[in-house]
Specification:
The protein is of the alpha+beta class.
Length: 86
């Protein structure tokens, strides 16, 4: 690996402020940069995650507002385990 910083992009599919498009575009831009640097798909997939959450991710945790529910991410064991293991 070439010392890249791991990034876990996560956004609500129906984020009422921005939608998921800007996050998807940022993920794709970074993915392309890593490819240009010579990283393999496997290497990129180990350090770059795109996680677009469905609305039920929020409602099942009693949150109706996806953008405002972003704080849930800090309590998501799967996401935190991934970030802290890198």
């Amino acid at each position: 690996m070439k010392n890249e910083v791991p990034i876990y992009f996560v956004v609500g599919k129906n984020d009422e402020y921005y939608g998921a498009t800007p996050t998807l575009e940022a993920y794709n831009a970074l993915y392309n940069l890593y490819e240009e640097k010579g990283l393999t798909k496997k290497e990129i997939d180990e350090i770059l995650i795109l996680d677009i959450k469905e609305h039920n991710y929020f409602t099942s945790r009693d949150i109706e507002n996806e953008h405002g529910g972003g704080g849930l991410i800090a309590h998501d064991q799967q996401i935190m385990n991934w970030l802290l293991s890198r």
